[in-house]
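Whiteboard transcription, Tuesday session. T.W. wrote the C-alpha cells on the left side:
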C-alpha cells in the first residue's frame, strides 16, 4: 500500500481546508453569542459614570460594568419610548437613564449588569443619559428592589442634581393639573412648595381623574434645565395616606370629676386625648342653642370660644395615638351662630367662659383656623391651611394642613436642628382660632373681636 506523508500536497491541502472551516465556525459562533460579563468584572459606580459627563458627548474609557435595579415601569408607558429605562445602583444611591438601540423587554425590579466600555454618555436637558447601547451589552442577573427616599419637595429641590435619575416618594402631597386629570404638566404640592410633574400622552393612566385626597407619590427625579421634575412610575404607586379620624362622638370623660388637673382641661375620646385651657378654651359641650340648626342633636362638640393666644385644642402623643409620622391634618369646623351674652360650659368640670358676642357681618368678617407647632414650653410656629378665609357662620368647612415631616422643613421654619428632631420624635400641636373681625369700627378689645368656633371632626393622615 502506498503511504501518504504529512508533507504530501494532498494531505497539506486537506489540513488547510479543515483549519479554515473550524476557524469560520468559531467566528460565526462568537458573532452570534450574547455578551455575558464575567463574574469578576470590575464594577464601576453609577455616580462615577455620571460624574464623567462634563461635555455634551463623551466616550467611557473605563473597562468594567455598572450594576443596578430597574426602577422604571415599561408597562405604564410614562417613558419617552420602549428603548428607555432607568437603573438605580442601590438604596440611597445614584440612578441613570439608559437608552438602548432597540426595544427591550426588561421590567420593573430586574437586576441588570451593563458593559460600559467605549459607550457614549450625553446630557438631555440636564439629565445624564447612557445612550445607544447594544442589547448584547445588557445582561439580566436577577431580581432586586429599591427602597425609595421618602422626602419633601423642598428637600428634593435642594438635592436635585445628586438625586437625578433615582427613585423618591413625596408624602404627603396634592396633585393638580389644568383639567383635573392625569395629563400634561401635572403639579405636586406639599404645603407651600410646588413641584413640576408630567404624564406623557402614551401613559396608560393619561386622562384618568386625579384623586382629591392627599396622596403619597412614587416617581423618578428628572431635570429639565434647572427645573426639577418628578415622573410618576405608575398609578399603582400613587397611594392614599392611612387616616385616623376623631369625630368626637365617643368621649370617655364627661363626668363632673374626671379632670385630673386644674391647669389643663383634658378631653378624652376613644381615639385621642385632647387638651384645652380651662379659662380660655377649648372646652367640650352640647351645641349652643344658636348652633342647633346645623349640628347633630345630642353630639358633644369641642368649642374654641376665643382667639386668645392661650386658647387651644391641643393634641400630643399618648397611649391611644402615636403622632410620630403625622403628615396631614384635616379639620372640619364652623363659626358659631351665637350672638349676645353666651356661656360656654365644660361638661366635665365647673369651668365656664362668658362672652358677649357681636353679630357676624357676613361677607366681611373672617373665620379661619390654624395649627401651632409647639416647641418646648415657650416656642410656637404657626401653620396655615390651604383654605381661604370663610365669611359666613353656621356651615362646616374642612381645612387641610401639611404637617412638617422632615428636619429640612422645620429648619426652614426657623426651628433649630436639635429642637426640630425632638419634635419629629414627639409631635405636639394646637388647633387655634384665627378668626377676625373685619367690620369697620370693631375694636381689638377682647369683648368685641371674638368669633367662637365649633369643631366637628379631625382627620389625621400618616
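and on the right, the sequence the group agreed on:
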Amino acid at each position: 500500500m502506498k503511504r501518504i506523508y504529512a508533507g504530501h500536497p494532498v494531505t497539506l491541502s486537506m489540513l488547510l481546508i479543515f483549519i479554515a472551516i473550524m476557524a469560520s465556525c468559531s467566528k460565526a459562533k462568537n458573532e452570534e453569542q450574547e455578551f455575558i460579563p464575567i463574574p469578576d468584572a470590575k464594577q464601576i459606580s453609577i455616580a462615577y459614570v455620571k460624574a464623567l459627563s462634563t461635555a455634551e458627548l463623551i466616550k467611557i474609557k473605563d473597562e468594567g460594568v455598572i450594576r443596578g435595579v430597574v426602577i422604571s415601569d415599561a408597562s405604564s408607558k410614562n417613558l419617552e419610548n420602549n428603548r428607555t429605562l432607568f437603573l438605580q445602583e442601590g438604596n440611597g444611591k445614584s440612578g441613570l437613564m439608559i437608552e438602548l438601540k432597540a426595544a427591550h423587554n426588561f421590567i420593573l425590579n430586574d437586576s441588570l449588569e451593563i458593559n460600559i466600555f467605549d459607550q457614549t454618555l450625553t446630557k438631555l436637558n440636564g439629565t445624564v443619559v447612557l445612550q445607544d447601547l447594544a442589547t448584547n451589552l445588557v445582561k439580566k442577573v436577577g431580581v432586586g428592589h429599591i427602597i425609595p427616599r421618602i422626602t419633601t419637595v423642598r428637600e428634593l429641590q435642594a438635592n436635585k442634581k445628586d438625586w437625578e435619575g433615582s427613585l423618591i416618594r413625596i408624602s404627603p402631597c396634592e396633585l393638580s393639573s389644568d383639567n383635573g386629570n392625569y395629563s400634561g404638566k401635572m403639579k405636586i404640592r406639599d404645603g407651600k412648595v410646588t413641584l413640576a410633574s408630567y404624564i406623557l400622552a402614551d401613559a396608560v393612566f393619561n386622562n384618568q381623574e386625579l384623586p382629591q385626597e392627599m396622596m403619597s407619590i412614587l416617581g423618578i427625579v428628572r431635570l429639565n434645565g434647572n427645573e426639577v421634575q418628578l415622573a410618576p412610575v405608575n398609578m399603582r404607586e400613587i397611594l392614599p395616606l392611612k387616616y385616623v379620624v376623631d369625630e368626637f362622638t365617643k368621649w370617655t370623660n364627661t363626668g363632673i370629676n374626671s379632670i385630673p388637673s386644674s391647669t389643663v382641661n383634658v378631653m378624652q375620646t376613644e381615639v385621642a386625648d385632647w387638651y384645652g385651657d380651662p379659662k380660655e378654651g377649648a372646652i367640650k359641650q352640647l351645641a349652643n342653642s344658636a348652633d342647633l340648626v346645623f349640628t347633630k342633636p345630642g353630639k358633644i362638640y369641642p368649642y374654641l370660644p376665643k382667639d386668645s393666644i392661650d386658647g387651644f385644642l391641643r393634641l400630643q402623643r399618648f397611649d391611644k395615638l402615636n403622632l410620630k409620622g403625622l403628615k396631614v391634618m384635616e379639620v372640619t369646623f364652623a363659626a358659631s351662630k351665637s350672638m349676645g351674652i353666651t356661656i360656654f360650659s365644660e361638661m366635665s368640670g365647673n369651668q365656664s367662659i362668658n362672652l358677649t358676642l357681636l353679630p357676624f357681618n357676613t361677607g366681611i368678617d373672617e373665620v379661619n383656623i390654624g395649627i401651632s407647632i409647639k416647641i418646648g414650653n415657650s416656642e410656637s410656629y404657626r401653620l396655615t391651611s390651604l383654605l381661604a378665609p370663610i365669611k359666613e357662620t353656621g356651615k362646616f368647612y374642612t381645612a387641610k394642613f401639611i404637617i412638617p415631616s422632615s428636619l429640612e422643613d422645620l429648619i426652614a421654619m426657623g426651628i433649630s436642628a436639635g429642637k426640630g428632631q425632638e419634635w419629629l420624635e414627639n409631635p405636639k400641636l394646637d388647633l387655634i382660632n384665627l378668626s377676625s373681625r373685619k367690620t369697620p369700627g370693631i375694636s381689638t378689645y377682647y369683648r368685641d373681636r371674638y368669633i367662637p368656633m365649633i369643631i366637628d371632626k379631625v382627620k389625621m393622615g400618616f
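Someone added at the bottom: Residues 46-143 form a domain with the OB fold (Dihydrolipoamide Acetyltransferase, E2P) fold (CATH 2.40.50.140).
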